[in-house]
């Protein structure tokens, strides 16, 4: 059926309004980051700074160890992404190829566990990390991020595995290739886009995470970037708005760039997992 002209106009208008709604916080953050104190306290704020300045960025780096916190976030996010993909890839292959009741039950439970709230998970995770002596450590935070990223990584990779025709593996077996050779030479190259997209999604999730890092990391030298951003807010709840906006803008850029690069692959993985039988 062909969509009528008024319906198309309505669709594009709704899409434009949605895009403006999503872009407003980031654009306002960008504008605030370049405003001097005089404009930040103005009763009539403007979108474009009248006298743009870089002082907010200088002050942000002078007040807080942003580079060290960014390094902690990078280590935690990268470690969690790599480990989650290494664990989820064979699990996803077995879950997609072995259509047994046990495999379906395990997959269903792992996916459902993603719906558990943070508060419900933090106490058992804290006790486990305490027994492992990983409280207040970046490796302990990596372990938590791996547990949190695994359900979505498994679900997403299972969709990519289902998209690989089993006939390709059967043809390789007929030609004399063993199971390992088939997985490495035939299946793995076809799964590469899905593995990359899953790893990058896990990276973004860990990079932006705040709650677990706030609870588990107490030493300032080990805190991640989202936690350090809260230090720009004083004891009475008054925010140092200019440096906070500048630091938050810099912290947001990596996740935006990465998501822009992988959003098509993420969408493709979701649709593949939803429609492939």
List the helices and strands and how they pair.
Layout: H1 5-33, H2 37-40, H3 55-63, H4 66-97, H5 101-112, H6 118-131, H7 138-163, H8 166-174, H9 179-208, H10 211-216, H11 225-229, H12 241-275
SSE order: HHHHHHHHHHHH
Distance between the termini: 27 Å
> Strand-residue fraction?
under 5%
- Stretches with pLDDT under 50, minimum 5 residues: 269-277
Reported for the largest beta sheet, the result is: none
Q: What would the average pLDDT be, to the nearest integer?
A: 82
Number of strands: 0
User: Share of helix among residues?
Assistant: over 70%
Shape: globular
Alpha-beta content class? mainly alpha
Radius of gyration in whole Å, from Cα? 23 Å
Helix tally? 12
Q: What does this protein look like?
A:
Helix 9 (179-208) runs antiparallel to helix 12 (241-275). The chain is globular. The chain has helices spanning 5-33, 37-40, 55-63, 66-97, 101-112, 118-131, 138-163, 166-174, 179-208, 211-216, 225-229, 241-275. The longest helix is centred in the last third of the chain and has 35 residues, at 241-275. Residues 269-277 have low confidence and may be disordered. It has 12 helices and no strands. The chain has 277 residues and is an all-alpha fold.
Give the structure's gist in a few sentences.
By secondary structure, this protein is an all-alpha fold.
Spell out the key features of this protein.
277 residues; mainly alpha; 76% helix; disordered C terminus
């Amino acid at each position: 059926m062909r969509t009528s002209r008024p319906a198309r106009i309505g669709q594009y208008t709704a899409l434009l309004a949605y895009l403006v709604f999503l872009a407003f916080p980031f654009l306002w953050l960008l504008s605030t980051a370049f405003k001097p104190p005089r404009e930040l306290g103005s009763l009539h704020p403007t979108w474009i700074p009248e006298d743009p300045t870089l002082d907010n960025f200088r002050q942000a780096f002078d007040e807080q160890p942003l580079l060290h916190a960014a390094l902690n976030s990078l280590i935690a996010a990268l470690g969690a992404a790599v480990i989650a993909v290494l664990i989820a890839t064979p699990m996803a292959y077995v879950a997609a190829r072995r259509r047994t009741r046990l495999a379906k039950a395990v997959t269903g439970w792992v996916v459902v566990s993603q719906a558990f709230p943070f508060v419900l998970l933090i106490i058992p995770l804290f006790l486990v990390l305490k027994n492992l002596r990983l409280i207040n450590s970046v490796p302990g935070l990596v372990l938590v991020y791996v547990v949190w990223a695994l359900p979505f990584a498994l679900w997403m990779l299972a969709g990519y595995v289902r998209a690989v025709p089993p006939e390709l593996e059967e043809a390789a077996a007929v030609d004399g290739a063993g199971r390992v050779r088939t997985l490495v030479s035939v299946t793995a190259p076809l799964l590469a886009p899905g593995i990359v997209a899953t790893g990058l999604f896990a990276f973004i999730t860990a990079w932006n995470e705040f709650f677990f890092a706030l609870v588990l990391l107490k030493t300032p030298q080990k805190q991640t970037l989202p936690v350090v951003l809260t230090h720009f807010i004083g004891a009475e709840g008054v925010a140092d708005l200019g440096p906070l906006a500048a630091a938050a803008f810099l912290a947001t850029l990596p996740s935006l760039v990465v998501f822009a690069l992988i959003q098509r692959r993420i969408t493709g993985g979701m649709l593949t997992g939803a429609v492939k039988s």
